[in-house]
Protein: Cytochrome c peroxidase
Organism: Flavobacterium nakdongensis
Amino acid sequence: MKKQNLLLALFSSFLFISCNKDDNYETLPTDSYPNVIATFGTNLDLNNLQNYANQTVPAYITKDNSNGNVITDKAATLGRVLFYDKKLSTSNTIACASCHKQALAFGDDAIASQGVNATTGRHSMRLVNNRFATELKYFWDERAANLETQTTMPIKDHGEMGYSGLNGDQSFSDLIVKLSAIGYYKELFKFVYGTETITEARIQNALAQFIRSIQSFDSKYDVGRATAPNDGAPFANFTAQENQGKNLFLTPPTFNANGSRTGGGLGCAGCHRAPEFDIDPLTKNNGIIGVIGSAGTIDVTNTKAPSLRDLINPSGTLNGRLMHTANFTSLQQAIGHYGNINIAPGNTNLDPRLTPGGIGQQLNLTNTEVQAVVAFLQTLTGTNVYTNTKWSNPFPN
């Protein structure tokens, strides 16, 4: 009887501990993951996961496009491995991280990114703060319905990662067979999903969770916004120039019948909405209609843009060129473009906010105004996203 009572007590204690521990992942002996340990060493500790699920998000950030695929520490960890794994390409030379580099706020400094068979048709977007946007569609032309769908499209692209199933390429099913034979994926998929089975949906969910976890809210702007009643109020930690730039960014312009600005600001926030600085889903073409490597062709379908956060890095240099054509190499050039909108022949999709009265807007910018807006945009840069190990390459160099 005493033995039964002892066993009952031990069982009850086990239930209590099991029900009250962090149920986001299961703690197992380290030797349960021999392939993970052999491959990643101390770079990946499944018994001590990085915090992806419960990161601090400022109270003034209200947008979240997780769309039911809520971030967990387990799946985001798997997503990190997938994001950096070059085995997801047919040549074992290209990973998602090849075109989206942590040092550049997960953007690229190349005009077009190199794939296994070709370069990308458009400049690669920065991925920082993807979760905090209203727009659910992805790619510059919004051809992917959501981030989950987007994550495997480059993998299935002939030029980018090569598993297209066309033009002699292997198919995505071949990739699943390939990954299923890798020891660390057997362990990671079982760790996350309970079985070793690899599917496209599981890959998509894990990659999307990792990408949505990449956030940047430690900028000078965030320090000021945390104590201000709203975005429009002066920020106590800003210089006069930075507050002027913020006011110009937020305030809509007024125009005369000729499309020339007569007052107000630049109205940037009409499309790039504070405090997330994401793109308005209703935004149309911004007047940039070029095609990389094709001077005689136009493309008016580009209507999405990344967040304006972390346009530059802490060193003060751009995190890659700007626009889908990568033809702007400075913030001044980008601001100047909006200051003098030219309605190019064939651009049937130009955003009407850029054409007051049907005429391309003329903001008549002064150098003082341009420099003020540049100063403000520089306040949107954080530091943590560039160095935090949870977003870094888990594979040994």
